[in-house]
Amino acid sequence: MRYDNSPPSPESGSSISPDRPWYTRRSTLAVAAAVLAPTCLAGWVLTQALAGPAAGDPQTRAAPQPASHTAPGGADGKAGATPSAPTAPASPTASGSPLPSGPPLASGSPGAPAAPDPLAGRTVVIDPGHNTGNFKHSREINRQVDIGTNRKECDTTGTTTNSGYMEAEFTMDVSRRLRTVLEARGVKVLFTHEAGPERPWGPCIDERARIGNEVKADAVVSVHADGVSEGSRGYHVILPAAVRGGSADTSKIVGPSRTLGERIAGNFARTTGTGPANYLGSGTGLVVRDDLGGLNLSTRPKVFIECGNMRDAKDAALLTSPEWRQKAAQGIADGIVGFLGG
Ligand code: ZN
Question: Quick check: is 249 in a domain?
């Protein structure tokens, strides 16, 4: 979501933000979009082939409001042009049938060795965006942290629906559902935070990235929902741009992160029946950003997903539905599992 640290208001778009330049740099954006469009479209077509067509309205139009997640910079046309293979083997598996250890079976039957489970021993870090406590800790979350290429606020409040359902509540709920689905498949899941008493705010965006790095996560997903104008609808997945500066170097994760993001986008569309964002990403549901500390500082394949627009009444009706959130979690999980080769 938007990265100001005051509670957003329904009419807030025009006044808020360090993010403003993302949309006001129209010439830069136009160039970037021109470069990106064929690549994104190709990616989208590929994703749809893998995951089935998305329902909803793929129509694209100019965004009347600033987008989420802070920031100047915006899309980087140089990034992500060459998807690379996922880091996991793609072989199918006979899941749940590990080879017995110990002596051979008495029958003497040779038996076929079970294929290794591509999900066994894999670690996924889930980052529930924001924290419900951030609204009460402005001083702490406004502290600037180093994101390699720049300095930014430690964390932000996130947005809310017009009726007050907080993005941070949404992200935690979807993340927990996502964890349940992944753990049922045998994946080890870690959270960047649980918003419990030990975490009254944050963590800061640099720490969120560091958590995935330190455990050498096979995939990292940061869960969000957007907060732009009424009429802007749909999901989008944010991919890391190729950036280098200070402790940021995404050169090794741009390719696999794109693969991860394409998998998630396609499966999310399939399970939720919702369409890609109609206000950015040219209808692909994919956007490349170079201004997010959580991506710039990651050394592991990582994406953000903006599940919908909390400020749009129709999207909000979905985002506040537990049944829809379960579908959202399932779609994200399916994308991750596909990326891991499961
Ligand atoms: Zn957010």
Answer: yes
Question: Two tokens at 287?
Answer: 């956007």
How much distance in Å is there from the Cα of 128 to the middle of ligand 1? Answer: 9
Cα 46 to Cα 36, 108, 142, 246, 258, distances in angstroms = 15, 47, 40, 34, 12
Question: Do residues 201 and 137 touch, judged by C-beta distance below 8 A?
Answer: yes
The alpha carbon of 211 and the centre of ligand 1 are apart by a number of angstroms equal to: 18
The answer to whether the beta carbons of residues 334 and 185 sit under 8 Å apart is: no
Question: Global pTM?
Answer: 0.71
Report the domain count for the chain.
1
Q: Give the residue numbers spanning the domain of 271.
A: 123-340
30 domain-assigned: no
Is the predicted pLDDT of residue 8 greater than 60, yes or no?
no
Give me ligand 1 centre to Cα 6, in Å.
13
CA of 99 to the centre of ligand 1 (A): 43
Active site residues: 306
User: pLDDT tens, 299-322?
Assistant: 999 999 999 999 999 999 999 999
Residue partners of 103: CB distance under 8 A and separation at least 6: none
Vertex 32 angle, CA 154 and 284, to 5°: 85
Ligand 1 centroid distance, CA of 241 (Å): 18
pLDDT score of 1: 56
Whether residue 111 is contained in a domain is answered as no
Would you say residue 215 lies in a domain?
yes
Which CATH number do you get for residue 182?
A: 3.40.630.40
